[in-house]
Amino acid sequence: MNRLAGKVALVTGAGRGIGAAIAQAFAREGAATVLAELDLDAAREVAQRIEAQTPGARVLAVRTDVTQSASVCEARDAGERSFGPIDVLVNNAGINVFCDPLTMTDDDWRRCFAVDLDGVWNGCRAVLPGMIERGRGSIVNIASTHAFQIIPGCFPYPVAKHGVLGLTRALGIEYAGKQVRVNAIAPGYVETQLTHDWWNGQPDPAAARQATLDLQPMKRIAQPDEIAMTAVFLASDEAPFINATCITVDGGRSALYHD
Fold first, then answer.
1. Which ranges of 54-138 would DSSP assign to H, the alpha helix?
2. pLDDT per residue as tens digits for the range 113-154
3. Quick one: which H or E segment has residue 225?
């Protein structure tokens, strides 16, 4: 507890899944947390849950469209008015866009990059000036194992996630001398509602679930809290010399040569 005491964090896409777990973990660890989420009702539900589970938690739900730079800046400003300068940013908001490359529409391409890459840059651009001025800060970008492993049928999502890693490394090096750290987390399969929705959309959901588990060296997939605690570590003062890198959280799946 209190590994993030005194810090102010902004988490995008905090209304569900990994983002909600990160917001809850940050609040448990003492951070004042801004839940920046397109679905404001979902963010408010998570904020209420945090307040019920963590007495004294300071949380704020703000409707945020990460594809719009002005909207992200508004979330930053709302957080700073309520809690003070942003110390930690988690760029978690993202969408799955899986298409055949040659039948994909221009709108599909733009939608993927607007959220999954431009949204990350919009978040970074909103908080970096303040972090640079104060000489401290931690940005955590939620990438994916799609950032370095390719699954056929998932285009252009891995292209955007490769970009997130490039952005993480470039900004981490650019502002290292200002004591602003920029890192990424690459989750593998995580048991979120999106994963359950995919299983349930298959002809045999139970078989689809089992096939996913069978692919994993640990014969299970990650829980959102397991990604969240990695974010806590990177956001905390326990990781002062970790910068411009990516921590993979996939139970060893990406190290497996073949099934």
1. 69-83, 106-116, 118-134
2. 999 999 999 999 999 999 999 999 999 999 999 999 999 999
3. helix 224-235
By three-state DSSP, how is residue 211 classified? helix
Q: Residue 173 gets which letter from DSSP? A: H
**pLDDT band at residue 259 under the 50/70/90 scheme:** confident
Which among 48, 74, 72 has a CA at the least distance from the CA of 59?
A: 48
What CA–CA distance (Å, rounded) separates 98 from 109? Answer: 10
How many whole angstroms separate alpha carbon 161 and alpha carbon 155? 11
Query: What are the helix and strand counts (H, E) for the chain?
Result: 9, 9
Q: Which of 157, 175, 189, 257 is catalytic?
A: 157
- Count Cβ neighbours within 10 Å for each residue of 216-244 and write b for 16 or more, e otherwise: beeeebbebebbbbbbbbbbbeebeeebb
From residue 79, give the alpha-carbon distance in Å to each of 17, 82, 134.
Answer: 22, 5, 17
Segment 27-86, tens digit of pLDDT: 999 999 999 999 999 999 999 999 999 999 999 999 999 999 999 999 999 999 999 999
Our answer to whether residue 157 is catalytic in this structure is yes
- DSSP assignment, residue 213? H
Pick the CATH number of 8-191+223-254 from 3.40.50.10090, 2.40.50.140, 3.40.50.720, 3.40.50.2300: 3.40.50.720
pTM of the model: 0.97
Per-residue model confidence (pLDDT) at position 184: 98
